[in-house]
C-alpha cells in the first residue's frame, strides 16, 4: 500500500496530507471534511482537483490542517491534494496547471508599520 505525503500552504494555513488508494474518505484533523468545512464552496474547493483528474471516490485522504482560517485551510488542502495527484499521475499535470491548482498563492497579510494604526491606514494629518 503506497502512501503519498505532500504539503500545501495558503496565507498562514498549512495542510499536510497522506493519500492512499481507498474508498474516497477525506478526513481532516480526525473529522469528516463535510463536518470540518460546512460550507458547500469550501467543500467544492477541497474536491476540485479530484474532480478534474476524475479519481473521486478512489483515494482516502488523511489531512492535518493548522493555522489560518477556513478559506485559507481549504485552499492549502487543495494545493496539497493537487501535488499528491501529480506525484501519482504525472500526465495530469497540464490539466491541473491550466486551472491554476499547482501554484502556491503568494498573497499574505501586509505587516503593520510603526507609528501607524494599521498596515496602510495613517493617522489624520494636521498642518497646524
Helicity range: 25-40%
Task: Count structural domains.
Answer: 1
Kindly provide the radius of gyration, computed on alpha-carbon positions and rounded to a whole number of angstroms. 18 Å
Shape designation: elongated
The spatial strand order of the largest sheet comes to: 1-2-5-3-4
Name given to the CATH architecture: 2-Layer Sandwich
Termini gap: 74 Å
- What fraction of the residues are assigned to beta strands by DSSP? 15-25%
* Structural classification: alpha+beta
- Broad CATH class: Alpha Beta
> Main β-sheet, in a few words?
5 strands, mixed
State mean pLDDT (0 to 100 scale): 94
pLDDT < 50 stretches? none
The CATH topology assignment is Ribosomal Protein S5, domain 2
SSE run: EEEEHHEHH
Alpha plus pi helix count: 4
The counted number of beta strands is 5
Keywords summarizing the entry:
single chain, 5 strands, Ribosomal Protein S5, domain 2, 4 helices, alpha+beta, 23% strand, 128 residues, five-stranded mixed beta sheet
Please describe what this structure looks like:
The chain is of the alpha+beta class and 128 residues long. The chain has a single domain, classed as Ribosomal Protein S5, domain 2, CATH 3.30.230.10. Helices cover 34% and strands 23% of the residues. A five-stranded mixed beta sheet has the order 1-2-5-3-4. Strand 1 (4-10) and strand 2 form a beta hairpin. Helix 2 runs parallel beside helix 3.
Short description:
This protein is an alpha+beta fold and 128 residues long.
Amino acid at each position: 500500500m503506497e502512501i503519498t505525503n505532500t504539503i500545501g500552504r495558503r496565507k498562514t494555513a498549512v495542510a499536510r496530507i497522506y493519500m492512499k488508494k481507498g474508498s474516497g474518505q477525506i478526513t481532516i484533523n480526525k473529522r469528516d471534511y463535510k463536518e470540518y468545512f460546512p460550507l458547500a464552496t469550501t467543500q467544492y474547493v477541497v474536491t476540485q482537483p479530484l474532480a478534474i483528474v476524475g479519481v473521486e471516490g478512489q483515494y482516502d485522504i488523511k489531512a492535518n490542517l493548522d493555522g489560518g482560517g477556513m478559506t485559507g485551510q481549504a485552499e492549502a488542502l487543495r494545493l496539497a491534494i493537487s501535488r499528491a495527484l501529480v506525484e501519482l499521475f504525472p500526465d495530469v499535470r497540464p490539466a491541473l496547471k491550466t486551472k491554476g491548482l499547482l501554484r502556491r498563492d503568494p498573497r499574505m497579510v501586509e505587516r503593520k508599520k510603526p507609528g501607524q494604526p494599521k498596515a496602510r491606514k495613517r493617522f489624520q494629518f494636521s498642518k497646524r
